[in-house]
Write a structure and sequence with these properties.
By secondary structure, the protein is an alpha+beta fold. The chain contains twelve helices and 24 strands. The chain binds flavin-adenine dinucleotide.
Length: 437
């Protein structure tokens, strides 16, 4: 049986082995199965570069208490990583992790590495693929389906060329498909007006809501606490936040606080984020596929995307997903009703009539209404609150944050604890940037 050395080296262990605290000052050896059982760590955790988590997770004495406010993709993964690092962690969510008001509470989200020239996100997505695979094995839930993603455009654009170049550089499969070949390969699609299709065959769809529920369940299983409450910053002393106030009148104290409140961030910190994060609404429509027709169902058609619309094939028999890229300019995630507008249904149907004519008269069989939390440059915002040394803000997912959950959660956890992180990524997601690429 393979064995790992258990030792008390500085973190991360310079020897590159998994560390456990010494029991009697002597180095001991534990077999891998015992080690995973003891730490509660995922299969393949060390392969993901989570070695620093391994040692801390097994600490007998809990480390400083941390509170994470917000149980979406950013907050739930952060809470899980902090817990695995051995901290006492409370995850506070107003409606519960994975709730249907949250941006992460929708049914499906895409994971792909194509990001134009934004290579840091491509690299993060690549790591996220491995993490999602390991985590779905650990959680025992099927969360990821390899669908492929087809980007359609009238002609090559700088963005498509940059995606092709970056994916090539990172060794991610990508294929350019001409108009004629699109017609042959996807006879269920009318490629009129499309000159080029860029296919990322490894791209996949994640079962988003189920994933967040699974992360929250793992967090609780590993000793984390989930509290349902709306929280706001409470008392402070100098540059230190002492506690949170909850709408129920309780106070929650901690040493470190992470606010990962997605589209609620601008109202929680209006002076700081009111002008930096916009919250528009988006209608998501699922059109029925014709009876007995599997041409529009997973795995027979990939995720598709072009300027006007994007969507996924029929997955989990929910219907063919169409999202228009327009919607309410401003959306209240607490109080607005989640009812799609006739205008967006008409837009989606007009798109189907052109691109997928066999679906144009099919009924809408399910809908969702989500909101985005967009920054001007679509970079995330992950940074210290300028007034508090122990408060980290994490959000600004800008329509692409979900996939990064398992990687960004580890990153946010390290930032909250003041551990070293990638300096280029830190710069890219800083609060005070004017613009960055
Ligand atoms: C239509 C649409 C399609 C998208 N497609 C993709 C995609 O294909 N791939 C992708 O990677 N990303 C996609 N995204 C983006 C992605 O969904 C978001 O970036 C991500 O889900 C944001 O997660 P979050 O944790 O920041 O916010 P949320 O998921 O909104 O979580 C915030 C949480 O904070 C809680 N909360 C808020 N305020 C408080 C408070 N005061 N006290 C306690 N709790 C509080 C809320 O209840 C909520 O649970 C899409 C977004 C939209 C809208």
């Amino acid at each position: 049986m393979p064995q790992v050395a258990a030792c008390a080296h500085a973190r991360p262990c310079k020897l590159g082995v998994a560390c456990l605290p010494p029991t009697s000052g002597k180095q001991v050896l534990v077999d891998r199965r015992t080690f995973i059982k003891a730490t509660g760590l995922p299969v393949g955790a060390s392969a993901l570069g989570l070695g620093t988590s391994i040692g801390a997770a097994a600490q007998a004495t809990p480390r400083a208490p941390v509170v994470v406010v917000g149980g979406g993709a950013f907050g739930a993964w952060t809470a899980l990583h902090l817990r695995e690092m051995g901290h006492r962690v409370t995850l506070v969510d107003a409606y519960g992790p994975g709730n249907s008001r949250a941006t992460s509470g929708d049914e499906t989200r895409q994971i792909r590495c194509g990001y134009g020239d934004r290579e840091l996100y491509s690299r993060s997505a690549l790591r996220a693929f491995a993490a999602w695979r390991a985590r779905q094995e650990e959680f025992g839930v099927s969360l990821m389906m390899q669908t492929g993603r087809l980007q359609l455009a009238p002609d090559w654009t700088p963005g498509l060329r940059a995606t092709q170049a970056t994916l090539g550089k990172l060794g991610v499969a990508v294929e350019a498909i001409t108009h004629d070949d699109l017609r042959k390969r996807y006879p269920q699609m009318n490629p009129e007006g499309v000159g080029i299709g860029l296919l990322e065959p490894g791209a996949s769809v994640l079962r988003a809501k189920q994933a967040i529920l699974a992360v929250a369940a793992a967090f609780k299983r590993k000793g984390g606490t989930v509290t349902i409450a709306r929280a706001t910053p409470g008392r402070s002393q100098g540059r230190k936040l002492l506690d949170l106030d909850t709408a129920g009148g309780d106070r929650i104290a901690a040493e470190q606080f992470v606010f990962a409140c997605g589209p609620w961030l601008p109202r929680l910190f209006p002076a700081l984020l009111g002008s930096k994060i916009q919250v528009p609404g988006r209608d998501v429509l699922y059109f029925g596929t014709p009876a007995g027709d599997t041409r529009f169902s997973f795995p027979n058609f990939p995720n598709y995307s072009e300027d006007r619309c994007y969507g996924f094939a029929n997955i989990d028999e929910r219907g063919f997903k169409v999202c228009t890229t327009t919607g309410a300019a401003s959306f209240d995630p607490d109080t607005d009703e989640r009812i799609v507008t006739p205008h967006e249904v008409r837009r989606a149907r007009a798109y189907l009539a052109l691109r997928f004519p066999a679906l144009k008269d099919q009924p809408v069989i399910e809908t969702r209404v989500c909101q985005l939390e967009n920054t001007a440059d679509e970079h995330f915002i992950i940074d210290r609150h300028p007034d508090y040394d122990n408060v980290l803000i994490a959000g600004g997912g800008s329509g692409h944050g979900f996939k990064h959950g398992p990687v960004i959660g580890e990153y946010i956890a390290k930032r909250a604890l003041g551990e070293p992180t990638d300096a280029a990524f830190d710069q890219m997601v800083r609060l005070s940037r004017t613009s960055a690429r």
